[in-house]
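Retry 2 of 3 after timeout on previous attempt. Resubmitting structure tokens to design endpoint.
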């Protein structure tokens, strides 16, 4: 209650002094607002942890809060089951808010208070392709939230039918649909029945799907759903990787067939969608399986989903670009358009994607190097950076699935917090604030 009062009081003051200046039209203002909102929300989101005594220092409390709002799911709390229900619910609420983005929520709600603006939506949902469902941004945001709430409600019902208590079902549904990963249990989903694990698998895969496809599906447009190229690649990678890992577990580790398939499908779905739930210590499996999971951390699911990471659409453009360059070596005069499905991708989008991928790799390298300076080994630093940038949660080494981020040095937690924000806001939305050209008066 105290943290809520502080937050609403501060927000009320800001609204009062800005109530006559409520039209956001400039892109520059939009980028400033988006980044500021995420940081400020994380600062206030840390208050419940501090005031309740669940966490006793601001660094850890801020880390837990920004991990929730960015739907990363990385935690510094050792005994989650010892937390009061109020704090457990707050952790899940941060996922619920962050899952579709604070700004998408804002464009659905703030117009009633006189706020609005297309630039805010573009800054938050800065995907490769903007597939607006309605000409008005507010209607688009409401449609997305409707789909979001429906998925949460359906998963909650199915989890309750499997014997999960209502409170736990709500918390896990918030985390699943947001691709977050915060659980109410110390061992995440490992202690639950196979039925519950399969339910969570299905909804993790839903969360990794472009939400606009659900909208078209609901309107009877099956063709747009089943013909989506990115969705096909997403499901294909999930299936092939699952089968490969399951066969390995059966043949080399002698796991039972059904358990191997379920464990493999769960972990593949969890990582590719950046959810971060676990049912097993996958780092104890065969070393090359761990490497596969590390590669998946840089994958991401579909554009327009709640998942983090690079997103498969960008990878598809990269591989198509490489394919075209090979063709041009044998046919230098040929004009070969880059197509994804039936859509031609403009040169501008291709350049943006390649720039994004290069910047992503550069930031990861800098992040890994910075963490090693704090004393972390390369494996743990690599896993921590990959999972923070991709919004996944568990990493490798000392931040693996049976550990958490409690032992990471304080400076390392601030570095990882920054990486979570960068990854969630698609890099450029944050980094543009550090450009001198951005601040010049036009």
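Retry 2 succeeded. Sequence:
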């Amino acid at each position: 209650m105290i943290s809520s009062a502080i937050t609403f009081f501060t927000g009320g003051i800001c609204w009062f002094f800005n109530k006559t200046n409520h039209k956001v039209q400039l892109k520059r203002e939009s980028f400033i607002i988006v980044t500021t909102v995420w940081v400020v929300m994380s600062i206030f989101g840390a208050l419940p942890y501090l005031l309740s005594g669940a966490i006793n220092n601001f660094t850890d409390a801020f880390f837990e809060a920004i991990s929730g709002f960015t739907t990363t799911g990385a935690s510094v709390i050792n005994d989650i089951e010892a937390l009061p229900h109020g704090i457990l619910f707050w952790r899940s609420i941060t996922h619920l808010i962050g899952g579709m983005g604070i700004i998408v929520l804002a464009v659905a709600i703030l117009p009633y208070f006189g706020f609005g603006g297309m630039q805010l939506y573009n800054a938050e949902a800065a995907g490769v392709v903007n597939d607006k469902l309605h000409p008005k941004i507010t209607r688009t945001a409401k449609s997305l939230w409707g789909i979001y709430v429906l998925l949460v409600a359906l998963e909650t019902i199915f989890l309750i039918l499997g014997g999960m208590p209502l409170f736990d079902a709500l918390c896990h549904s918030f985390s699943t649909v947001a691709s977050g990963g915060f659980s109410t249990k110390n061992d995440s989903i490992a202690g639950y029945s196979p039925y519950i694990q399969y339910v969570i698998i299905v909804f993790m895969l839903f969360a990794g799907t472009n939400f606009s496809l659900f909208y078209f599906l609901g309107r009877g447009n099956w063709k747009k759903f089943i013909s989506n190229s990115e969705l096909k690649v997403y499901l294909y990678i999930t299936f092939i990787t699952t089968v490969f890992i399951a066969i390995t577990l059966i043949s080399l580790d002698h796991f039972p067939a059904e358990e191997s398939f379920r464990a493999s499908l769960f972990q593949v779905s969890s990582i590719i969608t950046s959810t971060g739930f676990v049912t097993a210590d996958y780092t104890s499996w065969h070393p090359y399986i761990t490497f596969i999971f590390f590669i998946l951390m840089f994958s991401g699911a579909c554009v327009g989903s709640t998942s983090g990471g690079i997103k498969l659409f960008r990878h598809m453009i990269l591989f198509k670009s490489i394919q075209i360059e090979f063709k041009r070596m044998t046919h230098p005069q040929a004009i070969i358009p880059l197509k994804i499905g039936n859509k031609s991708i403009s040169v501008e989008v291709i350049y943006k994607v390649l720039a994004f991928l290069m910047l992503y790799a550069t930031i990861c390298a800098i992040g890994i190097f910075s963490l090693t300076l704090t004393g972390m080994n390369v494996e743990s630093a690599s896993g921590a950076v990959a999972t923070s940038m991709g919004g996944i949660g568990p990493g490798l080494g000392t931040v693996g699935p049976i550990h958490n981020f409690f032992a990471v040095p304080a400076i390392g937690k601030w570095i990882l917090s920054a990486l979570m924000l960068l990854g969630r806001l698609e890099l450029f939305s944050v980094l543009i604030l550090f450009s001198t050209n951005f601040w010049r008066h036009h």
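Attempt log closed. The chain has 21 helices and two strands.
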